[in-house]
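Internal tracking record. Fields below are filled automatically when a chain is submitted to the structure queue. Please do not edit lines marked as system-generated. If the sequence contains nonstandard residues, flag them in the REMARKS field before resubmitting.
Queue: standard
Priority: normal
Entity type: single polypeptide chain
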Amino acid sequence: GLSLKDYPSGELSSEINYKNGEYHGSWKSYYKNGQLKSESTRKNGKREGEEKEYFKNGKIHEIQFRKNDEFISGEKYCLDGSIIPSGVDVYSKMIDKEFRIFINDKLEGK
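SYSTEM-GENERATED OUTPUT FOLLOWS
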């Protein structure tokens, strides 16, 4: 069945589907502002198919493809929509109670 989880302040944080006690079906998480943060599919507890992560403004940040939980391929994007080349260091860091994206040690969007 469907499990809904909320932030302590009451906003929806995730929608997760289960089948026979395992993650199965769509999986979505949300920012506190209600914007979609990520979406993916699980099959018998494992990640399957396309996964997407979004910036807080709704633009796509990352797309990955998985088969039976194994990474197949993927791409990461800057806030302006350009593709981040492979080999570029991309990471997130908690700043002011929010995860911010850094590309080669530079705060994205600045």
